[in-house]
Write a structure and sequence with these properties.
The protein is an alpha/beta fold and 421 residues long. It folds into 3 domains: 96 residues, no CATH class; 210 residues, von Willebrand factor, type A domain (Rossmann fold), CATH 3.40.50; 57 residues, no CATH class. It has an 8-stranded mixed sheet with strand order 8-7-6-9-12-13-14-15, with helices on both faces. A 3-stranded antiparallel sheet has the order 3-5-4. The chain has a two-stranded antiparallel sheet with strand order 1-2.
């Protein structure tokens, strides 16, 4: 049984700091993707989750002067060096006590910070081994859930207000909601009467006059949208192109994946959710690890990611099946029949594109919708993503890493384009 430990409030500064605000302020450090950003506050820490780096990140946060309020900042500045060090230790202890972090001993084959043990795992997210002898910490699922919730609020806005457990589809049924079109009333339908359509039918038959005779055949009801559960695979591009060209595309991609994970898990509890990483190859990874993943091998094997996603979705018994692909949109690798990987990082290789689109066709034949988040503004890449979305009647979300909160939603199912803020 879960226990809550209560301690006496002693009025020290470490007890006054909000852990929610602290975790949000540390998110850039906790979600580091391997991109060397010279403007990042935590750039020198290299994203290594050691307790010493956590202490240094806390120290930088306190000394920056923009985290604590005026009175708390004055208290911090009045402290001696020993008192400040004790405060940092107390904060780390609070984070552990509230189950935001936990001390970690790395074991063979264990997922840590997006790294996969080579000898015991089918996948390989190439990362340098951590220095030996350093005390490390692990960001808990509770912290990942909190960061996902905050990311959903910041990036996806209104999408988080969907009703629990419901998905819109192309099918319609009678019900209480009035978002669908009208149809003639049939015995057994919910009497959600469309007054305007009913009167129009009666007047078309008898003309304008009083009294108006409304017959059974004139009755029209509004339809609500048929609602269903869905199996979703989030495909996350972790190739090296996601942190090249002077910008970090991977951290925003992780934030979107975290937001989608939180949205689907909390708003659609009847759904299933899986995570696939694709780079030179592709593999499934536990959804809980998405925030800890770092950039892996160089190339983008989109086709292999789609194949892994299809294998996962074939096991699902949900009515709806979809793939949410988060990428910079440039397929550059292909797994050949003999297992070798064909690579071409320059341009959109015709062979790679042809095989990738053929895999998209297989998704279409299997009834799988592909929705794509494209974190680039290159015209050729946008055309490719539009083609993929059109083939599978999915959705394309175009944005840039600097402005992820506002993007263009191209809905190929309704053939409309609208701005989502």
């Amino acid at each position: 049984m879960k226990r809550t430990r209560y301690t006496k409030y002693n009025g020290d500064l470490a007890s006054e700091v909000s852990l929610d605000d602290l975790m949000q302020a540390l998110s850039d450090f906790l979600l580091d993707s391997g991109f060397q950003d010279p403007f990042s506050r935590f750039q020198e820490l290299n994203g290594e989750h050691t307790l010493e780096n956590l202490r240094e990140a806390l120290r930088q946060l306190m000394e920056a002067g923009d985290f604590l309020d005026g009175e708390a900042q004055e208290k911090y500045e009045a402290m001696s060096d020993e008192q400040r060090e004790q405060m940092l230790s107390d904060l780390i202890e609070r984070m552990q006590g509230e189950n935001f972090i936990q001390s970690q001993q790395q074991q063979p084959g264990q997922y840590t910070d997006g790294k996969v043990d080579h000898a015991n795992s089918p996948g390989d997210i190439a990362q340098p081994a951590p220095p030996q002898g350093e005390a490390r910490f692990n960001v808990t699922d509770k912290a990942m859930d909190f960061l996902g919730y905050k990311t959903l609020q910041d990036l996806l806005g209104g999408m988080g207000r969907a009703m629990s457990g419901r998905h819109e589809t192309r099918f319609e049924a009678s019900g209480v909601e009035s978002s669908g079109s009208s149809k003639p009333y049939e015995f057994g339908d919910v009497m959600n009467l469309d007054v305007n359509a009913t009167l129009s039918s009666a007047m078309a038959r008898e003309g304008i006059g009083l009294p108006l005779n409304v017959e059974y055949a004139d009755l029209q009801i509004r339809q609500s949208e048929y609602l269903s559960s869905c199996s979703t695979v989030v495909m996350l591009d972790c190739s090296h192109s996601m942190i090249l060209y002077g910008e970090d595309r991977f951290t925003p991609a992780k934030r979107v994946a975290m937001a989608l994970s939180h949205l689907i898990r909390t708003q659609y509890p009847g759904d299933s959710l899986h995570l696939v990483l694709f780079h030179d190859s592709a593999e499934e990874m536990p959804v809980q690890q998405v925030a800890r993943v770092k950039v892996g091998p160089w190339y983008t094997n989109t086709r292999e990611g789609l194949r892994v996603a299809q294998r996962i979705l074939r096991r699902s018994n949900k009515d709806m099946k979809q793939i949410v692909m988060i990428t910079d949109g440039k397929p550059s690798a292909l797994t050949m029949p003999d297992g070798r990987i064909y690579k071409n990082a320059f341009g959109l290789d015709p062979l790679v594109i042809a095989e990738t689109l053929e895999e998209v066709n297989r998704c279409k034949r299997a009834g799988i919708v592909i929705n794509t988040f494209l974190l680039a503004q290159d015209f050729a890449l946008m055309q490719f993503v539009q083609r993929v979305s059109a083939m599978c009647r999915g959705k394309a979300y175009f944005t840039s890493p600097e402005k992820l909160g506002s993007y263009v939603l191209q809905d190929f199912m309704t053939r409309r384009t609208k701005m989502v803020q």
